[in-house]
């Protein structure tokens, strides 16, 4: 009887732990890979949400939430890929090229985060910053004051506010990626 009880308790603990892990790796409920990601109607709206996700990504990497960072990268991909459709016809080709660069860098960053390759995360995040700035320039978009890429946890809280959620407590402290200003 004791063995059976221990097995049942162990099974319950394992199920509870796996459920908690599943909830904590998502970027947020609005960015759940199982749900349809809501893409804003305008390029400005898409860029604003991309900056919010980028800030959450920087915070996740800064606090060593590497699995979480890979989920955030996954949620950023459809947003970036929606930008060429919002571009004026004369800027469509350059925007498509920049979005391909952005997607490639983001994919590489996500894979590196999952493989726990911390030595390449800072350079990839810097490259992603640069490509996001190129997208901003192509759409004449000015991110919110303070720079989304440098606003730390407050930007991560904004990311969750866009979806109607509060930021988790683990994002309360600003995250800093070593080697990235």
Can you give me a brief rundown of this structure?
The chain has helices at residues 2-24, 43-62, 66-81, 83-86, 92-114, 118-138, 152-161.
Overview of the structural elements:
34% of the residues are buried. The protein is built from seven helices and no strands. 65% of the residues lie in helices and 0% in strands. It has one domain. It is elongated, with a radius of gyration of 18 Å. α2 runs antiparallel to α3, α2 packs antiparallel against α6 and α5 runs antiparallel to α6. With 181 residues, the chain is mainly α.
What is the secondary structure topology, with strand pairs?
Blueprint: H1 2-24, H2 43-62, H3 66-81, H4 83-86, H5 92-114, H6 118-138, H7 152-161
Class computed from helices, strands and strand pairing: mainly alpha
What can be said about the biggest beta sheet? none
Mean pLDDT: 74
According to DSSP, the number of beta strands is 0
How many structural domains can be distinguished in the coordinates? Answer: 1
Rg from alpha-carbon coordinates: 18 Å
Uncertain parts: 17-27, 147-181
How would you sum up the global shape? elongated
Q: N- to C-terminal separation?
A: 59 Å
The helix count comes to 7
Portion of residues in helices? 55-70%
Beta-strand percent range: under 5%
Give the helices and strands as they follow along the chain. Answer: HHHHHHH
Task: Write a concise keyword list for the protein shown above.
0% strand; single chain; 181 residues; mainly alpha; 7 helices
